[in-house]
Amino acid sequence: MPTRETAETTQSRMAAADRRELILDAAARAFARGGYAGTSTDAVAKEAGISQPYVVRMFGSKVELFREVFARAGSAILQTFDTELDKLEIDPEDEQFWHQLGASYSRLLEDRDLLLVMMHGFCSGNTEEIGAQARECMASIYGLIRRRTGCTPEQARSFIADGMLLNTLLAMRAPEHADEDPALAELSTCAFGEDFDVLG
Length: 200
Prior knowledge:
The chain is an all-alpha fold. It has two domains: 1-60, Arc Repressor Mutant, subunit A (Orthogonal Bundle); 62-199. It is 74% helix and 0% strand. α3 crosses α4 (52-59), α5 (62-87) runs antiparallel to α6 (95-108) and α8 (128-149) crosses α9.
């Protein structure tokens, strides 16, 4: 395993954008495990194999680092919906249309780090900067769905609510433990479909 010094020497040869992405990837893994409150910049530095002062020098503070990681996750969701909507024949009255759009989101959530970063971000609303960003993220997703599909506010709300249920069930690893409780199995089947076990 490379030492911090070796990693930083290697990184010094990278473009600044590449170094930034390397740290953001490491930060996503660290924040996914520990959440915003439970993850220090030192933990991120250890995950990236660099020194803690280097992380602070590049991002300024833990909150700014988390905000960048959270922003990347939010952008991935918006991009996924945008790309899928370019492919679909849009009909907000067709249940199959919403199913296909939701399937693209389910595939995105196979990235557990992204899923957990989003959940931690939404749950960190008492931190002023993160709360503002979480609200902006949710408004952007809602606005995109309304704008691109022409659906009603109620249809957009229902679609987002279903997505948040998927987030919650996956965060608690419900599909992996569905056999422990018939009610959990029924809910998982209802949320993910009959083949929900592939998500375990």
